[in-house]
């Protein structure tokens, strides 16, 4: 019966659209949408996802988007076959980009999904709860949403190559995963691992036809390849130690300089412009356990973040810091940093590519090096956004260079220090790493600018590793003569 009703609605809308009076048309749209919505859910419940698009495409824009978001979230952990049926149904019967306000588009559905996946999930923890594990699982759910962007569009749709490129470009916005992969936990970062596996096929297609996507994804692809090398190295250090030589060669290889700084042109506005960095994070103790924040901890952290910059900088850049406990997760905090944009940091080209002042302040927390806070406590970031904003606080557009710079500050020194640790271990075992000197040159090179990304504490650790390496090397050289 409901199927018959849905078909009657479609017939009335298509055949009698011009003859129906306005009052009756409004009722037909309202009641008809309810019938089509019910039948779409019925098909979905019977696992006929491939048919849903026929009826959902006739719904009002907001109802169509809500329906597909609901279905995609319910099937998030389903098999690839089931998820691909929903993907095809949306691709074949909906426009890809928003053109007609009365029609829902695939882009709007994906943007809603991605936005919801990045929201802080409500969490209730007790003393026996593994808070860290729960946050790891949340990162996995976030990665599963990205999988919708990694499917291959059907060849029958219009502009399939352009659409494939746009999907891949959106999938490569992975910066939070770069920081998540640096979480200091022994367990593998499953969210980052899943994301790499999802992107394997579209990146393979990209390598086969590189010219097709160059205009769309070149910048994001370079950044993804940088992060991919970073994550693979960390993964191999903890799981696949025999591959250390390959990964180290990727990092120090002369043919493919890793994460070279690029000059990026930012806003040219001469009006007072501000920068904002919004982050959701969890406080991690040196023992690896999570710290449950309270008002006192938030106040202390806010003061410590302020103190990571000099009083002169705080005054001149009008730096403000706000730290509060998340309303949804008692173990998460919301950090908002704001400062005045200046030449080289928000205005004009950003030559250093280190994210500027806000990146430096947040990196100090991420590295656990806040002078006036509990020693060794780190900020494990799970969500990160940066914006240009006006004087009244309204957000005007994304400040991507800040997020990229923060990832460089946090990830590159950490990976290099682990490289040094492996190099020392190899020397101690009597199997010296041949490219150790190249690693030193990589850090000191003015072309890479890596040394500017190290904090004073990290530089000290780097020098200690080099000292230990040199001592082991001298001991090995003395052994034959003794």
UniProtKB/TrEMBL annotation:
<keyword id="KW-0813">Transport</keyword>
<keyword id="KW-0906">Nuclear pore complex</keyword>
<dbReference type="GO" id="GO:0031080">
    <property type="term" value="C:nuclear pore outer ring"/>
</dbReference>
<keyword id="KW-0812">Transmembrane</keyword>
<dbReference type="Pfam" id="PF04121">
    <property type="entry name" value="Nup84_Nup100"/>
</dbReference>
<keyword id="KW-0539">Nucleus</keyword>
<dbReference type="GO" id="GO:0006406">
    <property type="term" value="P:mRNA export from nucleus"/>
</dbReference>
<keyword id="KW-0653">Protein transport</keyword>
<dbReference type="InterPro" id="IPR007252">
    <property type="entry name" value="Nup84/Nup107"/>
</dbReference>
<feature type="transmembrane region" description="Helical">
    <location>
        <begin position="231"/>
        <end position="252"/>
    </location>
</feature>
<comment type="subunit">
    <text>Part of the nuclear pore complex (NPC).</text>
</comment>
<dbReference type="GO" id="GO:0031965">
    <property type="term" value="C:nuclear membrane"/>
</dbReference>
<protein>
    <recommendedName>
        <fullName>Nuclear pore complex protein</fullName>
    </recommendedName>
</protein>
<keyword id="KW-0732">Signal</keyword>
<keyword id="KW-0811">Translocation</keyword>
<keyword id="KW-0472">Membrane</keyword>
<dbReference type="GO" id="GO:0000973">
    <property type="term" value="P:post-transcriptional tethering of RNA polymerase II gene DNA at nuclear periphery"/>
</dbReference>
<keyword id="KW-1133">Transmembrane helix</keyword>
<dbReference type="GO" id="GO:0006606">
    <property type="term" value="P:protein import into nucleus"/>
</dbReference>
<comment type="similarity">
    <text>Belongs to the nucleoporin Nup84/Nup107 family.</text>
</comment>
<dbReference type="GO" id="GO:0017056">
    <property type="term" value="F:structural constituent of nuclear pore"/>
</dbReference>
<keyword id="KW-0509">mRNA transport</keyword>
<comment type="function">
    <text>Functions as a component of the nuclear pore complex (NPC).</text>
</comment>
<feature type="signal peptide">
    <location>
        <begin position="1"/>
        <end position="17"/>
    </location>
</feature>
